[in-house]
Design a protein that fits this description.
The protein has 369 residues and is of the alpha/beta class. The chain has 15 helices and 16 strands.
Length: 369
């Protein structure tokens, strides 16, 4: 189903609006927590609902191996399987093409399973079939993401192969009429930091008439300022009435920079990964609670946000839990970090609505750049 974007407010190129899919609607800008194997680490779907999450990610590669897409399908699809009433989105496995260094050809990618070492073949068509079985509301095409820096030749090969795979994936998805009437498929723009290749990739992706569009292959090793103009080159080619998704972005300064260039949706493991290693997101930037200076602190995590669901526990207590490796620490810090980032995105939406986005972004850069 064509995912639509209804613009409600605009401040410069920053957009606040509503995305509509076959499941319903969600507000933008939207940060989407990552639940790789069907769950965000240390949290339940009830936790996520109470925190205000609207869309949760799952990973096609991991879910097709454990428990298997057939099992997820037999248990009602990813949402019902995880007891989650909101939207679901699945990565196609493209990140594993980037991170696991499989053997890649025009046909697809061949991996070794991270679970048992067995050979796994993933094609553009296979990624579509698997995601339809999993039943995610928004599904990504299989793409090739190159690390940065890479040579122009490597970026060109990734761009052309991504376009080839996108053509095949789109045809496969539209060949499932029942699925395509209720589910949405997003195309992915590649092209490294080359402006011409970014624009070309966006144009070739739009020609396939996807239900929404994502920008991949940025924030993968280059400095944040290096992706500003390539992102602009891509979003300038994308339809204004469909959602735009920056894949793998979760730091506050990066998020405001992307929103300033017309992006609506984000995902990242950053807030949950930082939490598991003792680092909190606060109004003053990152706070590493493992530092000795917090051992006797009875201050709340972030006095600027007394309504945090974790505000009742002191820095000293939370540091103690981290020091003795109490699992409760990871849970409480994860709750705070996701709550903080979701609140941050809500505040950013308000700034767009009020016409104060530029001031909001300047404040974020002061603390996070």
């Amino acid at each position: 189903m064509k995912a639509t974007f209804d613009l409600e407010h605009k401040d410069g190129d920053a957009r606040a609006g509503t995305v509509t899919t076959g499941r319903g609607t969600f507000s933008t800008p939207c940060f989407m927590p990552v639940g790789t194997r069907g769950a965000v680490k240390h949290l339940s779907s009830k936790d996520l609902s109470e925190l205000g999450a609207q869309v949760i990610l799952g990973n096609t590669y991991h879910l097709m191996l454990r428990p298997g897409s057939d099992i997820v399908e037999s248990l009602g699809g990813l949402g019902k399987f995880a007891n989650w009433d909101g939207h679901t989105l699945t990565d196609s496995g493209g990140y594993q093409v980037f991170s696991l260094e499989p053997k890649i050809s025009d046909e697809g990618a061949i991996f070794k399973s991270v679970y048992d070492g067995s050979k796994i073949s993933l094609t553009p068509e296979g990624a579509v079939d698997t995601q339809i079985a999993i039943g995610a509301d928004i599904q990504m095409v299989l793409d090739v993401c190159s690390a940065l820096p890479s040579s122009d030749a490597v970026i060109r090969e990734a761009l052309d192969r991504t376009a080839l795979w996108a053509t095949r994936a789109r045809s496969r998805f539209l060949g499932h009429p029942t699925a395509s009437e209720r589910l949405s498929q997003f195309g992915i723009v590649q092209g490294g930091i080359d402006l011409a290749m970014r624009a070309e990739s966006a144009q070739r992706t739009v020609e396939l008439d996807f239900d929404g569009y994502a920008v991949g292959g940025l924030s993968v090793g280059e400095h944040r300022t290096q992706w500003h103009e390539p992102l602009r080159a891509a979003t300038d080619q994308l339809p204004a009435d469909q959602p735009r998704y920056f894949m793998g972005l979760g730091d506050p300064a990066g998020i405001v920079d992307a929103v300033a260039r017309g992006i609506d949706m984000f995902d990242c493991v950053l807030p949950t990964r930082l939490a598991r290693h003792g680092t909190l997101l606060t109004s003053q930037g990152r706070m590493n609670l493992t530092r000795a200076e917090f051992a006797k602190s009875d201050d709340p995590i972030d006095p600027a946000y007394p309504d945090s669901p974790v505000a009742g526990w002191s820095r000293g207590y939370l540091r103690h839990l981290l020091q003795v490796k109490e699992p409760t620490a990871a849970r409480l810090l994860t709750i705070h970090n996701l709550w903080w980032l979701l609140r941050f995105v809500d505040d950013m939406r308000t700034s767009i609505t009020n016409g104060t986005f530029e001031t909001f972004a300047a404040g974020v850069h002061e603390q996070w750049s």
